[in-house]
Amino acid sequence: MMRVTLLGTGTSCGVPVIGCQCEVCQSTDAKDQRLRCSILVETESTRLIVDCGPDFRQQILPQPFRKIDGILITHSHYDHVGGMDDVRPYCQFGEINVYADPIARKGMLEMLPYCFAANRYPGVPAIGLHEIHAGQPFTIGDIDILPVEVMHGKLPILGYRFGDFAYITDMKTIAPDQLALLRGVDTLVVNALRFDRPHHSHQLVDDAIAFAREVGARRTLLTHLCHDIGLHKEASSKLPVGVELAYDGQVI
Questions:
Q1: What is the pLDDT of residues 74-131, one digit of tens each?
Q2: What is the model's pTM?
Q3: Which of 190, 188, 197 has its CA nearest to residue 173?
C-alpha cells in the first residue's frame, strides 16, 4: 500500500505571508498555516520526495529518519528546490538520486553548482542528477512513476502519476495528449491558487475543479494555496462534493 503525506500545501510565499495582517495569516488554525509545496510518497520499502523547497528541513524533521530513494522535481523555481542542500544528512545512506526534466536539470546545475563541481567542497550533498521526460515511465524501488507535462504559464514542468494517484502543482494548462495520461486517476492533488483574480501561470479553484472532472478523479485535494484562498474552514464550505482543500501534514 502506498502512503502519501502532504508536507506542504502553500504557495511560493507560504502562509502566513511575512508581514501580512489578514485574517488567514493571523489565524491560529493549523490548517491555515502552509509551508511550501512538497509531498512524501512511501511504501514499506521505498521512499520518495516530490520537490525539496526551502521548508524541507522543517517538513522532514517530524518524519522517521530513513533512506530517501529518490527526489522528483516538478521544476527548478526556488520554492520547489531551495531546500536541496538540506538533504545532506540523508547522504549517509548513499548518494541522493534526483530526477528532473532537461529544463529543471539545467536550472539545478546553475542554482547549485557546488553540488556538481568536479572537485566538490567536503560535506556538500552527494546528488546524482538524472534526466527524465514526460510520458516516459520509470520505476524507483516498487513505485511506478509516470511524468506528465503541464504548463506553468509558458514554462513546461512535470506532474507525476503513481498508479491511481496523481500530483500536479503550478499548472495553468495541459495539452490533450498529456491529460490523457491522467485519465482513470482515483485521487488527484492539484494546484488552485485562490477563488478569483486570474493568475498568468496558476489555476484558480474553478479551473482545478474543471480539470479534475476532465480527469475523472473520485477525490480531489487542492494544493499550492495562497492566503487569498480564505480561512480553511470557510473556503472548504464553498467546494463541491469530492473536492477539498489540502492541508499540511495530511495523509492519503
A1: 999 999 999 999 999 999 999 999 999 999 999 999 998 998 888 888 889 999 999 9
A2: 0.97
A3: 190
